[in-house]
Amino acid sequence: MLPSQALLLAVVFALAALQALASDTFMAAVYEHAVILPHPTQEPVSPGDALALMDKNMDVLEGAIKEAAQQGAHIIVTPEDGIYGWRFTRESIYPYLEDIPDPVVNWIPCTDPSRFGPAPVQERLSCMARNNSIYVVANIGDKKPCDSSDPSCPRDGRYQYNTDVVFDAQGKLVARYHKYNLFLGENQFNYPKEPEAVTFETPFGKFGIFTCFDILFYEPAVVLVSKMQVDTVLFPTAWMNVLPFLTAIEFHSAWAMGMRVNVLAANTHNTSMEMTGSGIYAPAGARTYSYNMKTEDGHLLIAELDAHPRLSPDSPPAVSWNSYALSVERFSQNDHEFTGTIFEDLFTFTELTKPAGNLTVCQENFCCHLSYKMAEKRDDEVYVLGAFDGLHVIEGQYYLQICSLLKCPSTNLSTCGQPVEMAQTKFEMFSLSGTFGTSYVFPEVLYSGVQLAPGEFKVLADGRLINQNTTSKPVLTVTLYGRWYEKDPPRTDQASA
């Protein structure tokens, strides 16, 4: 064989291997669980009572895991707080905690349950994975003793962590993640001294994991995707929906698109706390999702995903988020500019007074451009274009740049920005862009009834969020949600008890 022929064959085989890699898929599952909660108490219950409650929740999760495996799922994600709930003080959660070792110990709790002391929860989760030949992702509590040699050691002599664990299809512990960005009220837990970028390899791609509130911050969420180059993010969450921008399905699907990564998001289900919304999200949009505020039932979702989405032909192109907005002159600014608050952030709004048009609204040097055409301009509905550029300081401190077309709850402009779930106006066309200073922007389109619009919109390489055809349902909001991580204030220590 001539050298040139050998080289040609090598190139052909390499391309074939790359093509095969790019076409690899896997079946993913998430389970939205209606958690059985403990009775509120300031005093710790007995270890037996704690395990009894956790067993009740694991009975439900085991049923979902078996069903997912029977339907061919390779991995299943269950929610944050899914095994014991969230009604705890630091003292009362202690009976629910186990010592979770570093996965380097090469441990299968199902076959060696007492190796690191009593671990009935890890044993059962491991056996669920092993007996069903499926990766299982769960959220439990870790405890680690410390003493006076550690100046940060809590007064009770232990660290307590909100912890995600992953068991592979043989039941081996392959990942452990301690939540870094604790939400308000998680006083029962400590945060790790340094953020953990936890990844693991599987036959169907590289995975990373973090929990709930973590998704709004650079570490570990962005680090896992931008630096560690994971293919899929595992995301247990207990997410309380906040309209108009931060419903679970809306933001988590937008994050997957903006970061160009798969996200498996499993939410807890508790309608009294506005907790619902789980999904399996790809960079091109939601593969499947569920939002249910009508019943208290759990819900299993299963969908096929590309194992290596960056190599997929469906992967969206890289975006220069301010390219278009910086290249055009400001559209007309009308006399209907006013201010209003969304989640305590002060927006600048301008009203869409005509059935079609081009509008610009600015807040200081940050400008949002909108071209639009309504299917019909209704007298009983008001839409506005809003801009926000500033530090959000309510449940955390993080810097936002937001452009949004959104429906107001009524024709009274003072209501604009308040939550609204239903609308009647469809749009034949919209094109939204902004002069973003950040490269981290998450595109959201939310329809009436809090429904997503997979396949009905796209982001152009120049940063414009546009619809493909007339919207199939009335529009609640079209939003570009930007996070400018470099402008976040320095992290302040969260107090240890």
What does this 3D model show about the protein?
The protein is an alpha+beta fold and 497 residues long. It has 2 domains: 22-306, Carbon-nitrogen hydrolase (Nitrilase/N-carbamoyl-D-aminoacid amidohydrolase), CATH 3.60.110; 322-487, no CATH class. 17% of the residues lie in helices and 32% in strands. The protein has helices at 3-23, 47-70, 120-132, 218-227, 248-259, 323-327, and strands spanning 25-32, 75-77, 135-145, 158-167, 173-178, 199-202, 205-209, 232-237, 262-267, 278-282, 285-290, 299-306, 337-342, 345-351, 356-363, 366-374, 383-392, 398-407, 427-434, 441-447, 457-459, 465-467, 475-483. The strands form 4 sheets. Strands 5-4-3-2-1-12 form a 6-stranded mixed sheet. β4 and β5 (173-178) form a beta hairpin. Keywords: Glycoprotein, Hydrolase, Signal.
Mean pLDDT: 94
* Number of structural domains: 2
From the helix content, strand content and strand pairing, which structural class follows?
alpha+beta
Q: What is the rounded Rg? A: 24 Å
Sheet with most strands? 6 strands, mixed
Unreliable sequence segments: 8-23
GO biological process, one term: pantothenate metabolic process
GO molecular function: pantetheine hydrolase activity
Protein name: CN hydrolase domain-containing protein
Pfam families: CN_hydrolase, Vanin_C
